Amino acid sequence: MSRYRNLGLFLFLAAVWGAAFMAIKAGLGTPGDPGGFFETPVLFAAIRYDVAGVLMLGYAVYATDHAIPSGRDEWTTVVVGSVLIMAGYHALLFVGETDPAVTSAAAAVIVSLSPVLTAGFARAFLPSDTLSVLGAAGLLLGLVGVVVLSNPDPNNLLSGGTVAKLLIFGAAVSFALGSVLTRRIDADFPIETMEAWTMLGGALLMHVVSVGIGESAADVTWTTDSLLAVGYLSVVASAIGFLVYFDLLERLGPIEINLVSYVAPVFAALTGWAFLGELPTVYTVVGFVVIFAGFLLLKRESLRRELPRIRRALS
Description:
The chain has about 325 residues and is mainly alpha-helical. The protein has helices spanning about 1-30, 40-65, 70-95, 105-110, 115-125, 135-150, 160-185, 190-210, 225-250, 255-260, 260-275, 280-300, 300-315. Keywords: Membrane, Transmembrane, Transmembrane helix.
């Protein structure tokens, strides 16, 4: 029964996080559509985490006896997470998804590079953990996958969504680096508390960036679509999604839960097609396969150690 529970939650999380890319696109709107957040993508991201951060803080107060960080290491973790995992990742992702040439599936596939980049950064920041030849090949394959997916035109690199896809790649880099640095600090406080305060700190930073680049709440027309997008991203994808993630992280471990990044693009493609009429290109599919191959090379030893346990669990 536990096996089916974990599988069900895993698929639920992949579906929830995959559909989030569609929700971002729907909330952002399209050029000439005054009903979305198209003119204010960073503000959109900030509002998402205003709501999600308050909800997660409430849960941290309920579930832990350590709802407020204390000490240098804990606050350093919050600052790093706020800057890189929340503000850097989401600001770049939301701005990148404003380009109509970037489908929900394409954005999800680029973000699925995060585990590959995380492994690369982990090797870089841990001198005792050197990168093997196959590991370096895996990292290179992941980067090649992004290039294939971006399908840049050498004669006009500023067209066809290339810049937007590079922004989303930057988002994946920011998230991966933030994940490694927060683990290196290794502050001993509840994950719920860390997530709540990094969400709130990231939201604050994104509000500052939003004002700095000239975005204004006056430019937002609240519609049913934009309200549904904010509600889904804040409550379902962030608050509920992270609670499921924490549960599975404890039950499955980091190797298996990383695979969510490779199932989510399937749901991003399905929801993008169903709600927005988006169709994945052949470059999206090939890019995904190449990125996943890079992940398998980088994580080959960990996956080899995990296989006997997975077989026992499925028997």
